[in-house]
Amino acid sequence: MNGMSPALRTWIKVNLPPRWVVRLRCFARGLGSPRWGNLRRVRPFSDNFGFDRGTPLDRYYLHQFFQRHRAHITGRVLEIQNTGYTVRFGHDVIEAHTLDINPVFKPTYLCDLAHIDDCVPEGHYDCFLLPNTLCVLRDIERCLRNALRIVRPGGVILASTAALVPLTGDVPDYWHLSADGWRELTRRAWPDTTAQVEGHGNCLAAVAAMLGLAHEELDPAELNVYDARFPVLVTVFAHRSA
Ligand SMILES: C[S@@+](CC[C@H](N)C(=O)[O-])C[C@H]1O[C@@H](n2cnc3c(N)ncnc32)[C@H](O)[C@@H]1O
């Protein structure tokens, strides 16, 4: 509203609804206005992360992450819940085992990762996969410490965790941290190990994920833009020192 007389500016502010004042201000400043279409909604398009539409948006980044590190998914591999990603991305796998706190998944090790004491052999695995799991681990620091104990010296942990995506809803979802938050936590839990912590996503990807859209509904060129302010997924790659 630059260029308007102070009297006109005051009249607009006093007499127009605030929404119109903002519209005029954005127009005058060339700031652009949203065209909401059917995005103006208070319920997402999907109530289960977009699984009913296609592949959930965050899985785009998760699959890229596993693809990039697939050389490490080999030998004795342990995975949380089921062997889905071991089978999909692994090669020359000697053992494909699972760990979960929930008996429904019939895991090899039925236990809480925070209390693995006599349950899981120490230093046994070449690779531990924790896809989209860190956010739901209640005693997160203890779980991180134990995850590293399970892999052999020289072995790896490949983990991912939700950031700007809806909370799970049916089970507690404790930690939707930024990449910096996970860097800090992994530094505390693994003082002798350098973890590579990366955020993935941008504001469009975050909005799409929040609304439950599938990643196939966006273009890779859009998904591949990275803006650290809008992490959809955070990935952690850690190599246990030999
Ligand atoms: C969201 S699922 C992630 C794995 C799934 N395959 C995926 O790709 O989304 C998280 C799993 O972690 C398990 N879980 C939660 N807390 C746990 C704990 N403290 N110890 C072991 N497993 C745990 C849950 O039962 C659940 O099966």
Question: Which key phrases capture this entry?
Answer:
alpha/beta, Rossmann fold, binds S-adenosylmethionine, about 240 residues, 2 domains, single chain
Largest sheet: 7 strands, mixed
Number of helices: 8
Q: Any idea what the CATH architecture of the largest domain is?
A: 3-Layer(aba) Sandwich
Proportion of residues in extended strands: 15-25%
> What small molecules are bound in this structure?
S-adenosylmethionine
Counting helices, strands and paired strands, the structural category is: alpha/beta
Strand arrangement within the widest β-sheet reads: 3-2-1-4-5-7-6
CATH superfamily of the largest domain: Vaccinia Virus protein VP39
Write up what this structure looks like:
This protein has 242 residues and is of the alpha/beta class. It contains eight helices and seven strands. The protein has helices at residues 6-15, 18-28, 57-68, 84-89, 140-150, 179-189, 203-210, 220-223, and strands spanning 75-80, 93-100, 109-110, 125-130, 151-162, 195-200, 233-239. The protein has a seven-stranded mixed sheet with strand order 3-2-1-4-5-7-6, with helices on both faces. Helix 4 (84-89) links the parallel strand 1 and strand 2 (93-100). S-adenosylmethionine is lined by residues 80-82, 84, 99-102, 105, 112-114, 131-133, 136-137, 143.
